[in-house]
């Protein structure tokens, strides 16, 4: 039973809720504050002074740019791979009944349930066994394992709501497979794919554990930050980068959230 | 090509799903321009037959021809056949006009022309001016009309209708039955109509095929099917006839064998006739349906409303013409 909407929650509960939210988000705010501090060796509170110079310093650091560009490349390519494979897999699993269908569904979802460290170790030993040198592409393979799951989950939910007779109707009206995909399937699953792709991008962009096991000498942005924290040199640069990471990962998630929410309404209304 | 061309022809067509014989050696000849109903309970293979004509499914054995052309291996999008789906299957992301124009769009008809065609198709199904709406803004009956327009705009040689009236309420269903019938007469398109409702099949179709367990039990005009059912299944399923065992028939009719007797052919009489007991009754408006016991045999009778009836459990006398006792072909 739902409580009355007009009835106010007890004061104790309100305080507890506020405290919980503060506990979650205050540390993130602190990261932002330290991006402006004048103290570069320790995180001193309160900051002795405020400056914008770390933004300029960060801008001129080539290692930051290298890591950022690598991360964007890895996240983009992993997302594209995930979009293709995840959609195809979801279409196969939802579109037909075949032996082992449930098993395949479970196996596709499994990588996200596995701890990243297990995935990382497994991939590392597999790459070593197959004598694949660690490179840009091994990072992408590692990231694709969980990106595929994200896209698959988004796509299959939409496929299940999209009635199979829509595809039959399209074929019946004279559309071949390609036209059916272009004019019926894509418009119906498009927002789900966009949302899944954005989530996959965000996940890949800040991934640390799997990356540490599958990368060679390359540093993605999160790995670079981890290394930077150990070396107390120009510390606020890390905070500036952290702000960028938060913004780059948070925005797509927010957009994905709104897209799937509206998409659900459209799909539900069409039924 | 021959002068007695058939619209759809099934020659010993089977569709087996593993051990399940969904369609089993079916022979059918559907004539051009006729309103053909495939009638049967769920799981009798009628919908599978429809899907075989549409091309969504392929026969495991046998041969299908659509207007003289072999259908096996031809994908649905190359058949000049369109379907009105049971759930209508309107595209939720397109408005009504784009839904109706879809078939023309994928064939590359220019936009202005296909919009004109869509508008006249919508007029045909009495939904003029609904083009800009989304399917979600329409009622069930309106969606059904859009589905009909979307199929007819392609000028199919055969229109397949899969239980199209199932989701509508009674009044709307009766209205759509009449409209479908007159539309079919006006367009002259061959309609193949799947239904489990025998009343619907009897009132709308030119000919009916009665399905049971993947086989065609009987093909004929509604009158033939109703008055002269060939098997116990058809007698029972169409018109809910009394199916009477040989000893009963021999005692009261003279002939030897299983026979059917329609409930409205049984009448109550004052003095002479067969002794029976009223077990129960149900009021149907224009008539009353009685359940009677004659010896050990249960019998149904339909009598006009207003007939004065004694209470349940009372003895009555009943009579029927021997000519109404119709001997069945399947004698086990």
UniProtKB/TrEMBL annotation, chain A:
Superkingdom of this protein's organism: Bacteria
Keywords: Cell membrane, Membrane, Transmembrane, Transmembrane helix, Transport
Assigned GO CC terms: plasma membrane
Compartmental location: Cell membrane
Domain ABC transmembrane type-1: 68-256
InterPro entries documented for this protein: Bact_Polyamine_Transport (IPR051789), MetI-like (IPR000515), MetI-like_sf (IPR035906)
UniProt-listed Pfam families: BPD_transp_1 (PF00528)
Membrane-related topology note: Multi-pass membrane protein
Main location class: membrane
Transmembrane segments: 12-36, 67-91, 103-122, 134-152, 240-259
Record-stated family: Belongs to the binding-protein-dependent transport system permease family. CysTW subfamily.
Name by which UniProt lists this protein: ABC transporter permease
Species this chain originates from: Neoaquamicrobium microcysteis
């Amino acid at each position: 039973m739902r409580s009355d909407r007009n009835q106010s929650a007890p004061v104790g509960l309100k305080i507890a809720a506020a405290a919980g939210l503060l506990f979650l988000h205050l540390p993130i705010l602190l990261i932002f504050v330290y991006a402006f501090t004048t103290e570069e060796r320790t995180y001193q509170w309160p900051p002795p002074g405020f400056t914008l110079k770390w933004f300029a310093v960060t801008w001129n650091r080539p290692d930051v740019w290298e890591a950022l560009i690598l991360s964007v490349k890895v996240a983009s390519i992993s997302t594209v791979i995930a979009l293709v494979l995840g959609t195809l897999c979801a279409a196969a699993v939802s579109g037909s009944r075949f032996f082992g269908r449930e098993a395949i569904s479970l196996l596709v979802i499994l990588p996200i349930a596995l701890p990243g460290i297990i995935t990382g170790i497994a991939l590392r030993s597999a790459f070593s066994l197959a004598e694949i040198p660690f490179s840009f592409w091994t990072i992408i393979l590692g990231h694709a394992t969980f990106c595929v799951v994200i896209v698959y989950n988004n796509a299959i939910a939409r496929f299940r709501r999209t009635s199979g007779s829509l595809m039959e109707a399209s074929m019946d009206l004279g559309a071949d497979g390609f036209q059916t995909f272009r004019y019926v399937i894509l418009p119906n699953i498009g927002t789900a794919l966009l949302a899944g792709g954005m989530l996959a991008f965000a996940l890949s962009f800040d991934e640390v554990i799997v990356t540490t096991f599958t990368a060679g000498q390359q540093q993605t942005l999160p790995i670079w930050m981890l290394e930077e924290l150990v070396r107390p040199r120009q510390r606020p640069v890390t905070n500036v980068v952290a702000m960028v990471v938060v913004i780059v990962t948070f925005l797509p998630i927010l957009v994905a959230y709104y897209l799937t929410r509206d998409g659900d309404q459209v799909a539900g209304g069409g039924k | 090509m021959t002068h007695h061309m058939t619209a759809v022809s099934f020659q010993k067509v089977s569709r087996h799903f593993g051990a399940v014989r969904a369609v089993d050696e079916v022979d059918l000849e559907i004539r051009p321009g006729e309103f053909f109903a495939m009638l049967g309970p769920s799981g009798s293979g009628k919908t599978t037959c429809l899907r075989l004509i549409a091309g969504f499914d392929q026969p495991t054995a046998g041969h299908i021809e659509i207007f003289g052309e072999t259908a096996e291996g031809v994908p649905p999008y190359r058949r000049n056949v369109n379907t009105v789906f049971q759930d209508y299957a309107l595209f939720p992301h397109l408005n009504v006009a784009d839904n109706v124009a879809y078939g023309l769009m994928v064939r590359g008809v220019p936009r202005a022309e296909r919009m004109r065609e869509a508008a006249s198709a919508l007029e045909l199904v009495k939904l003029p001016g609904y083009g800009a709406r989304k399917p979600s803004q329409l009622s069930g009956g309106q969606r059904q009309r859009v589905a009909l327009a979307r199929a007819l705009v392609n000028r199919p040689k055969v229109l397949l209708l899969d239980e199209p009236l199932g989701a509508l309420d009674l009044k709307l269903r009766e209205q759509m039955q009449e409209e479908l019938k007159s539309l079919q007469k006006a367009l002259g398109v061959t309609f193949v109509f799947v239904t489990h409702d025998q009343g619907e099949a009897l009132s709308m179709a030119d000919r009916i095929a009665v399905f049971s367990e993947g086989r065609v039990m009987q093909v004929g005009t509604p009158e033939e099917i109703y008055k002269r059912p060939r098997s116990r299944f058809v007698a029972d399923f169409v018109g809910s006839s009394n199916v009477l065992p040989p000893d009963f028939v021999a005692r009261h009719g003279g002939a030897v064998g299983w026979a059917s007797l329609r409930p409205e052919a049984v009448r109550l009489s004052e003095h002479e006739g067969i002794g029976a007991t009223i077990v129960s009754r149900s009021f149907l408006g224009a008539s009353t349906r009685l359940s009677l016991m004659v010896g050990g045999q249960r019998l149904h009778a339909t009598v006009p409303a207003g007939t004065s009836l004694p209470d349940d459990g009372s003895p009555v006398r009943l009579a029927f013409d021997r000519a109404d006792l119709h001997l069945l072909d399947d004698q086990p």
